[in-house]
Write a structure and sequence with these properties.
The chain is of the alpha/beta class. The protein has 18 helices and 10 strands. The strands form 2 sheets. A 6-stranded mixed beta sheet has the order 6-7-8-3-9-10, sandwiched between helices. The chain has a 4-stranded antiparallel beta sheet with strand order 2-1-4-5, with helices on one face. The longest helix has 48 residues. It starts with a helix and ends with a strand.
Length: 559
């Protein structure tokens, strides 16, 4: 995805945005006109004219004062409504683009970085209309109107004001890039680094404590926090310097207007009240111009956030992932006579793992038949392609060759529909930081407590659940409060509740004591109904009485 596309999506349409822009211009013009009218009124009143000559200006001062407040309220209301509405659209669009990449297309993205992009970076995009487009457009239109108005009173003063405004803008750009651009670009990556450090600390606290590594984790958090603090201070300092320089130029503009306008006093109808307006007007204009340096700084931050969002969301789906899936029907694909794979080839997307280990693992020619109710062991050395096969079976990865589910080619079936038929129990099942009940209900949200107890009995967890206090027992972050074998049993319980006709068990004994692995496999396979097919993937020996047949994979091929 291109950065320009992200920025374009973040900006509300003109139809929705013009009320906010119009209200903002109304606020700025009211503020400038209020100061100008007040200056003219005070100066003219000092000449003690008839009340008739100043009555209209008194009314104008009151109108501008009230108008500034009303327009300000309308600006805030309409601008935030437009920006937040567009923000929801951007976030939903980003999630829609990321979902087809999960899980195998996001292997290089750390959870903290992905969370930061989904939350912090997308939130930053709301500043495009609020803190970039609005201030720049309002300042530009109000400044132009002020210069034109001043030109009618005193052309030389208008020229001085215009020169000072141009200098202020150039100075804002130069100072911002020179002193704050690098710090602003670093902020979001540093926030991601801090998020990663905090997540690693919280998720792995038990392991860190066991190995007395908490001090190193704390030091990493402190280092990330300190780097973020320094970047924030540098950005604030740059913004303060720029704002101070712009304020100084505002004073210079008023002084320059006084110098160039004073010689014309009393000539061509240029009176003392008009001189007051010409001198005071730059102060009001620069007050409206004041947010411009912050807008330029916000632009750099918004653009950096858009670049990171664009990098997370590619233009298209990478090779290796399913392309152009058909529409979902919300119905399970018919298993028919079973699964049939002929000459299946597949590879992991170019993203791979952070260390690149998965990029070389692929299938180069797999032939496999799985009939309903059959239990097939897929074995082979590490790196042979067993996990690749598991991900092809559930369409996390694309394939070449023929893979049929019943009488249909798998590529012609929507992935969600296919995964209603074929369920995957991974070697490291994801358990949510919720109760056992909620973790099971994710698979079947209408299941009763009796249904849950029945399935727990089948997978051998009923007694353990009672000892833990029942279905409300907490499992901890990513199942940190349960053992590897228990997490596998919970994952199988979810699969049984979902009712998959085919179960793919990927290394279910990984991380389990070898002495207990056979018993665990016997329990897992024994819990599966006889009419359900099972594809058991394992690199260790499995008792033959638990299986119907064995298929071996070496170097991505069946042998």
């Amino acid at each position: 995805m291109k950065t320009a596309d992200v920025l374009r999506q973040a900006q509300p349409s003109l139809r929705r945005f013009w009320p906010a822009l119009g209200s903002g211009v109304g606020t700025a013009v009211s503020a400038i006109a209020l100061l100008a009218a007040s200056g003219w009124l005070i100066t003219r009143a000092a000449e003690q004219p008839e009340e008739l000559y100043i009555a209209a200006v008194v009314v104008a001062v009151r109108a501008f004062a009230l108008g500034r407040g009303v327009f300000r309220y309308l600006e805030r209301l309409t601008s935030h409504d437009a920006a937040l509405g567009q923000l929801a659209t951007v976030r939903a669009g980003m999630v829609r683009r990321i979902v087809p990449l999960a899980p195998d297309g996001l292997a290089t993205t750390r959870r903290g970085a992905l969370l930061s992009r989904l939350v912090d970076d997308v939130d930053e995009l709301q500043n495009l209309p609020l803190r970039v487009v609005m201030p720049l457009a309002i300042a530009g239109l109000a400044s132009l109107a002020s210069v034109v108005f001043t030109a009618f009173l005193q052309p030389a003063a208008a020229l001085a004001l215009l020169v000072c405004l141009v200098l202020a803008f150039a100075l804002s750009v130069w100072l911002g890039w020179a002193s704050g651009a690098r710090a602003e670009r670093q902020l979001a990556p540093l926030r991601s680094r801090l998020s990663d450090a905090l997540l690693d600390e919280f998720v792995s606290l038990e392991v860190l404590t066991a190995f007395e590594a908490t001090d190193a984790a704390h030091a990493r958090i402190r280092a990330a926090d300190e780097a973020l603090r320094r970047a924030t201070v540098r950005r604030a300092l740059a913004q303060a310097l720029t704002a101070g320089a712009v304020s100084l130029l505002g004073g210079v503009a008023s002084f320059a207007a006084l110098l160039v306008a004073l010689p014309g006093l009393g000539q061509g109808g240029f009176t003392g009240p008009a001189l007051a307006v010409v001198v005071l007007l730059p102060m009001a204009v620069f007050e409206v111009f004041g947010p411009v340096p912050l807008a330029l700084a916000s632009w750099r931050q918004v653009r950096s956030a858009a670049e990171r969002v664009a990098a997370t969301v590619p233009d298209g789906i990478p090779d290796g992932l399913p392309q152009h899936e058909p529409d979902a029907t919300a119905e399970a694909a018919s298993l028919g006579t079973g699964l049939s794979l002929r000459g299946v080839r597949a590879q992991w997307p170019a993203l791979g793992d952070a260390d690149g280990t998965r990029q070389g693992e692929s299938l180069r020619g797999i032939d496999l038949e799985v009939r309903p109710g059959e239990r097939v062991l897929v074995t082979g050395p590490s790196g042979a392609g067993k996990t690749t096969l598991a991900h092809v079976l559930v369409r996390f990865l694309d394939y070449q060759g023929s893979f049929r589910v019943g009488d249909r080619e798998a590529a012609e079936v929507n992935g969600d529909d296919l995964r209603r038929t074929i369920g995957l129990v991974e070697q490291s099942p994801y358990l949510f930081d919720e109760s056992l009940r909620q973790n099971l209900l994710f698979a079947h949200d209408r299941a009763s407590d009796d249904d849950l107890w029945t399935v727990l009995e089948r997978v051998g967890l009923a007694d353990w659940t009672r000892e833990r206090g029942g279905l409300d027992a907490a499992l901890g972050e990513r199942g940190g409060l349960v053992s590897g074998g228990q997490s596998q049993r919970i994952a199988l319980a979810r699969a049984l509740l979902a009712g998959f006709p085919v179960l793919v068990l990927d290394e279910p004994t990984a991380g389990v004591d070898p002495a207990a692995s056979d018993a665990l496999l016997a329990d897992l396979l024994g819990a599966v109904d006889a009419d359900r097919a099972v594809v058991l993937i394992s690199h260790v020996a499995v008792p033959s009485d638990l299986l119907d047949r064995e298929v071996r994979i070496e170097d991505g091929r069946t042998v």
